[in-house]
Amino acid sequence: MALEKPPLATVEPGRPITAQGWNAIVDALSALYDAVLAFGSGSVAVSVQADGAVVDGAEVVAEPVGEGLPVEGLPIFGTRSTYLVTGVTDGAWRIHVSAPGFASQVLDVTLPMSSPVTVNLARAGVVVPDLFGLPLTSALAAMRATGLEADLLLDAMGDEISRSQVPAEYQNQPILAQLPAARAIVDAATTRLRLVVAAAIRDEPIVTVPSLVGLTQVEASRALEKIGLRLGKITVRS
Predict the structure, then answer these.
(1) 0.70 exceeded by the pTM?
(2) Which CATH architecture group holds 126-197?
(3) What is the pLDDT of residue 1?
(4) In which residue ranges of the chain is CATH 2.60.40.10 found?
């Protein structure tokens, strides 16, 4: 109930208080008691779950059916696995539950209740799989199994990797990072993942550079070409 301040009379020292003034004080105290009692001293526990697991980070609000103000529940803390709504009164209440990545739920209950109120949330998207350490081809397969597609593939050096035809040297390279993060709930129709893959190791042929001392420039160039090398910048000194 709303608490309204009644008209209060003031008196002077030695002047007796009138019956009207005394009644105003009594009415004000009575209204104050009613307002305080309307806050309620009860509580209700709300268990928020999805697929049998506790959902952390949910918002739980209890709203009285009729007159009264909504009460926000306390979040999960310590070893507690339920949300706690305190300051409720006996009677009909409507509990609103929402959480990122889930469809909101509304449940009507009658208090008091000895057992927790259980609310099962439905996911509003798909769960991003944990791809860290998986070979690139396995990671792409795991994504497609959930309806997700890679938007960008980069190696650890910042080079872009083809998504349509993954080069052979990258197919078994492990995933180092992903965005969005693992276990995030996303819309498969609009969300694209970005993956960072370990840089591919390329085997480069090794040759032994022959001695070019005493050779002319032409002779040195021919000697290098025979082993797959070529002259670079040439500096002439007298």
Answers:
(1) no
(2) 2-Layer Sandwich (3.30)
(3) 47
(4) 42-120
